[in-house]
Structure formats: C-alpha cells, structure tokens
C-alpha cells in the first residue's frame, strides 16, 4: 500500500477511532466512491446515518492454539497470548489493525467493531503448558490487542488465563491501557509476591481530548494513572509505556507523563515511536486530516524523518525507536525524564524456576 494512498472523507462516529471500512491488502477487488454532481457523495454515510453509532459484534472462536512464539529481536519476550482478535479501544494508530485482513475483515472500522474472542483460551493454555517440551519463559498477555478491552468485563477470558498461570507459578507480563486490570489485583498480587509478574500500562497522553480522539474506548488518562497507583500499592511491579510517541501530538508531553508515572508509583519507563504498517498509514492520515488538519503535514513529515523518508520501515534495528536525529533526541528525553524521576529503563527479571505443569487430568479433563 502506497504512502500516498488517499481515503475518502467520512463523518466521525462517536466512540470509534475511524468511520472508514478500508479494504485490506488481500482483497482482490477495490471500490471507489464517485460524486455524480448531485451531492450524493457528501451524504454518503455508514450504517444508515451520518455519524451513527456502530454496535460491537462478538465473534466466538474455538482456537486450536493459544501461545504464539516470537523470534523478533526487538521484542523483549519469546511467548505471547492474545485472547481477543480486534480491539474495541479503537486506537487509530494500532499496529495490529492489518491482522484483521487475515479474517477477511477491514483493518478500519471492522477491527474495532467485530471482535473475535477465543472462547476456549483457558483450555488451550492449560493443554499447552502441560506439554513436556514447554519452557516457562515469561508469557506476554496483550501484545497485539488489549486483554482488558470492554468485552473482558463480560467474558472473563483474561482472568481465566491468569488463574491458570498463577496456579502453575508461570511468569508472565501484561500490557494494557485499561483500568479494568484492577479487577485482577488479587491474582496479580499472588504472582508479584513470587516475582512472577510485571505489568506495563500504556499512557499515550495526559490530555483528555487527545486520548478520547486517539483511543476512543480506552481508559481516560487519569484512570490509567489510578490503575498504576492501585497496582503499585498492592506490591505489583508496574511500568509505564509512553507509547506510541507521535511527533507534535503527544511528543511534547514526554516529561510530564514520566513525572505523573513516578508520582503514581511506577517503577520503570519505556517507549516506542509511532508505527504505521500497511493499512494503518492511510487510516492515520485520514484521522489527522479530520481531527488536527493544521498539524497533519508537520506530523507526517516528522514521522517520515524517523522512518528514513517513508511512512514506515519494518527493519528490526529501528522499527520500535525510529532512526536519525529526532529518534536520538526522543531517546535522550526519555532517558533523562526517567533519571530525573527515579524510574528504571529496564524491564523486570522474573522468576522462571518454580513452574509446575498442570496435571494430566487437569489438562485433559477427568472422568471422575
């Protein structure tokens, strides 16, 4: 998909990151809207009404496997679990959006309204942990889509996974931007007492308007800070991710976010810069033109400076941090902000030595 691929303008939908059902890159056919001069294109709307709310659709799935293996050198974990595909938070910048194309769904509006839930996630995890060859290195939960997105309140898939990990004394980490993680402090504190868990809360901005626009159904900034505080008070090691850093949008807030994180009890500070792979680039460009048109050109010019002149560069050497003088400046600002506020720049080293595999009866089910 070209850096210059345009998207037609569309009315924003309240509570959604994008109103656009952009075609995914695997589609064999594409459709273009054309104005016939009667104003019909201007009245073009999604789901019947301009700006009308779009309901979330739950798609239940029986997964065959759950633990994904990772060999990317710039990702600090070997194993990952995502109980959901798609994310109702609707973050416009989400690098996982293109994955919905594998389901023949749009990385745009479908990604945040058609959520696939792995209903047998706990059974899969129990079976995979019980395999003789399983190595108990830390498993990350929520690396692609948030494990505490709104549907989790009803389905409880993530809590069921935590119950197994805690019982098996398996180390794990969690990445989230939801205050819903507070529900599971009872389980997390058990793992924390044994140095078997680390939590990373992503705080993109402290500006309520920007958060609501960038991440429409994620927790408000003050609620994320409250979650950091409550986790820390329970003895759970919690880090803050300033992620993603977007030039001229949340980039000026780096130092303020670091200070707020430290005051809330975070132990370490981490970051990534904006990533715009595949269909994310045109979606983000459309968002800029809709919400911050006065800054759109400046933002994209600086993003391309960080990416060697392109919207995105997937090279592992600088995929997460960018390259060039602006990338170096961001790194220095993060390091100095962390040092000023007593925050580490390292991830926790978790205990991997007390794993107890599920019993065979537990893994396969007992007749008695």
UniProtKB/TrEMBL annotation:
Is the keyword Disulfide bond assigned to this protein? no
Instruction: Name the keywords, alphabetized.
Output: Iron, Iron-sulfur, Lyase, Metal-binding
Q: Which CDD domains match?
A: Radical_SAM (cd01335)
Region annotation Disordered: where it falls in the sequence: 343-368
Which residue range or ranges hold the Elp3/MiaA/NifB-like radical SAM core domain?
Answer: 77-302
Q: Does the keyword Oxidoreductase apply?
A: no
GO molecular function ontology, one term from the record: metal ion binding
* InterPro entries (UniProt xref): Elp3/MiaA/NifB-like_rSAM, MJ0683-like, rSAM, rSAM_sf
PANTHER family attached here?
SLR0285 PROTEIN
Question: Matching NCBIfam families, A to Z?
Answer: rSAM_PA0069
Put simply, this protein is called DNA repair photolyase
What is the organism field in this record?
Rivibacter subsaxonicus
